Amino acid sequence: MRILMLAPPGAGKGTQATRLAEKYDIEHLSSGEILRAEVEAGTALGDQVREAVDQGDLVPDDVILRLVSSRLVTAATNGGYVLDGFPRTLAQAHAIFDQVLANPGWQLERVIHLEVPRDELHRRRQARAEAEGRADDTATVFEHRLDVYDRQTAPLIDYYRGRGLLIAIDGSGTPDEVAEQIFAAVDDLAPL
Ligand code: AMP
Fold it and tell me: 116: CA distance to ligand 1 center in Å?
């Protein structure tokens, strides 16, 4: 099963990707988590991306590709993946699916677009900020991340709709309610 979660910050991509990975025994790949681990470990690459991550700006496409390419191929050859946080630009989408995962058996099968109203995104942002204390969950940085999403990531919605891969899911309910809808939307892809 090969799935992409596409949604603005705070919509529940990570939560739902974790559930999908557990239910269908596929690899959950989160570019945000991979980047935060690099920053926390203080690697050279972590130091290079720290400012962009903390300020809610995208890190360069080549950095993302370097971090995710081998993990992607491993997952694609081991039962599949659920991507959380990437591709986040059309350029990343082309680089990943025209180059890294060019093999037809490794391509995306479905894109889950979680739709959540803005006021609910802000409410969830505040709850997560209190629970996790991420530097990029402050009100100002989060607002910037929403702008970045609208400008750089939202074009992927039409791109994948045009390819017949997009399924829109109402992401405003509880995690259980949303998960149920997502499972129903992908269950036909599960191996028998
Ligand atoms: P996330 O956890 O997906 O919200 O990502 C947190 C931050 O990591 C983003 O605001 C970006 O700074 C960076 N980031 C995560 N994924 C990507 C990506 N695919 N391309 C560029 N920057 C990313």
Answer: 19
Mind listing the pLDDT tens digit for each residue in 16-69?
999 999 999 999 999 999 999 999 999 999 999 999 999 999 999 999 999 999
Q: Which residues make Cβ contacts (< 8 Å) with residue 27, sequence separation at least 6?
A: 21, 71, 74, 75, 78, 79, 80, 81, 82
d(CA 79, CA 97): 17
CB under 8 Å, gap of 24 or more: what pairs does 49-52 form? none
For 174, residues 6+ apart whose C-beta sits below 8 A from its C-beta are none
Active-site annotation, residues:
13, 88, 128, 134, 145
Q: Is the CB of 35 under 6 A from ligand 1?
A: yes
Q: Is 63 in the pocket of ligand 1 (CB under 6 A)?
A: no
